[in-house]
Design brief:
The chain has helices at about 1-15, 20-30, 50-80, 80-85, 90-95, 135-145, 150-155, 165-180, 200-210, 250-255, 260-270, 280-285, 285-290, 295-300, 305-310, 325-335, 360-370; strands at about 35, 40, 50, 110-115, 120-130, 160, 190-195, 215-220, 225, 230-235, 240, 245, 275, 315-320, 340, 350-355, 375-380, 385, 400-415, 415-425, 435-440, 440-445. With about 450 residues, the protein is of the alpha+beta class. Strands 4, 5, 18, 19, 20 and 21 form a 6-stranded antiparallel beta sheet that branches. It starts with a helix and ends with a strand. About 45% of the residues are buried.
Length: about 450
């Protein structure tokens, strides 16, 4: 990683900043479908470059995490006393416990983490399950950079490839679907989310990938299904839907009470295969990080798995009135060491890192969010990587190197790592909404 990045930056410098490549890349993304909040996705001119040793290490870590998270979901489903620890609202628990006729407990996830590229130490930021996205950003930014002279020179020295995230998901999806007890020989697939918040750059590519595999697929808004007790249908034309790739996150479904009942009722009646099932919500919830340190969880993990949790999951506590008083004083008194997050949300909504606030504001945030569905977590300072930005301010030195906080995320399909989506930032929250950048990744051999 680090050596390859330094080599890439040296090539940019040799090209006096490769301003032509930057301009071409920016134009490519402006003309693309990867826009965020009405603007082209912002991205660095330096990609992440992962060699085989990097990927072997990261892959092993993610497979271990996936195995642990599946054990947690399994215990949640099987043990009501364990279930209570998660404090999921009754309507969420009902969805999680709906029937499911395939074995894979966590079909898709993206595990975001903070990695020190010097010694490969790291801690997880969070485990994304339902709604894991941004595959198109990685793909299109990679396509933009591949046109530059910098990339062409680097690829003369190395074999460089993009990670493939669309056809591989279709293959995974269909493998899981065919293991379902009620699978049909020729299914029709729906990608579903809320139309107004869905990421159609992703959806369109996944639908095209299904069609390349000879499988009929379409987008259906999660509110636009009809269920007659026997079949789930697209209300627009009556087409029967056999399997669903769910991108609608559970928390957003709950914000639309009664509007998504056709889908929910079809899942309950075992008339449609839902991938991923609502049971993935158990580990999408930030409460999983609390549960991983609980003795009830450690009782069914192996010693190796317990050591893995201790090394790589930040200490996490429910922010409520049952918090140990000494710990509460520590949280208030050492703001830079803690971050407050909603127990079940996405997109960095309502996230408050102590490093971004003064002491008085932090004290108020801790107080205001007690018993309000929040957790408080050890803040693991992100490590920095060197980059060059793509868009230059007027008069800026095109060879200037900047240091940004780094957060890679690994896509895991059916337990296997398949690619990455990386982000960079300069505030306590690494996200585009907080002035961050999307960074693509390449495999370097």
């Amino acid at each position: 990683m680090k050596e390859e990045r330094a080599e890439y930056i040296d090539i940019i410098k040799d090209l006096d900043g490769d301003t032509a490549g930057r301009k071409q890349a920016l134009g490519f993304i402006r003309a693309s479908d990867v826009w965020v909040h009405g603007e082209p996705a912002p991205f660095p001119f330096v990609p992440y470059l992962f060699n085989k040793a990097d990927l072997d290490y990261i892959g092993a870590q993610c497979r271990m995490a996936h195995g642990i998270l599946c054990k947690v979901i399994r215990r949640y489903l099987d043990d009501p006393s364990y279930r209570a620890m998660f404090k999921l609202p009754p309507e969420v628990e009902r969805l999680v416990l709906l029937p499911c006729n395939y074995d894979q407990l966590l079909p898709m996830g993206r595990f975001d983490f903070f990695l020190d590229e010097d010694d490969l130490s790291y801690k997880f930021c969070e485990f994304n399950t339902d709604g894991s996205g941004a595959m198109s950003r990685d793909f299109m930014i990679g396509q933009a950079l591949m046109q530059s002279e910098t990339f062409k020179r680097f690829s003369q020295r190395h074999e460089v490839r993009q990670f493939e995230l669309f056809d591989s998901w279709v293959e995974t999806f269909m493998r899981i679907y065919r293991s379902d007890a009620h699978a049909h020989a020729n299914p029709t697939i729906a990608v579903t989310d809320f139309r107004e918040s869905g990421v159609f750059s992703d959806f369109d590519r996944f639908i095209a990938a299904f069609k390349r595999a000879g499988i009929p697929a379409r987008f259906v808004d999660v509110r636009a299904f009809e269920f007659d007790g026997n079949a789930l249908r697209d209300a627009s034309d009556g087409t029967k839907i056999d399997a669903i790739y769910r991108r609608a996150v559970t928390s957003e479904i709950l914000q639309h009470p009664g509007e998504c009942d056709a889908l929910i009722d079809a899942v309950a009646a075992e008339k449609v295969c839902l991938i991923g099932h609502f049971r993935t919500t158990v580990v999408h919830s930030k409460m999983v990080s609390v549960a991983l340190f609980d003795e009830r969880t450690r009782a069914f993990l192996t010693p190796e798995e317990c050591a893995f949790v201790d090394a790589h999951v930040p200490r996490t506590y429910v922010l409520d009135d049952h918090l140990d008083p000494a710990l509460a004083d520590e949280i208030v008194g050492d703001k830079d060491a803690w971050i407050i997050k909603p127990a079940d949300d996405y997109g960095a909504h309502g996230v408050y890192p102590g490093v971004d606030f003064d002491e008085e504001t932090w004290r108020k945030l801790v107080s205001d969010n007690r018993d309000a569905g929040y957790i408080v977590q050890e803040f693991y300072p992100p490590h920095h990587v060197d980059i060059m930005n793509t868009e230059l301010a007027p008069g800026a030195d095109p060879c200037a190197v900047e240091s940004w906080e780094s957060m890679p995320g690994v896509y895991v399909y059916d337990g296997a790592p398949v690619g990455l989506y990386c982000r960079l930032g300069k505030s306590g929250v690494i996200a585009i909404d907080h002035g961050g950048l999307c960074a693509n990744s390449f495999r370097v051999d």
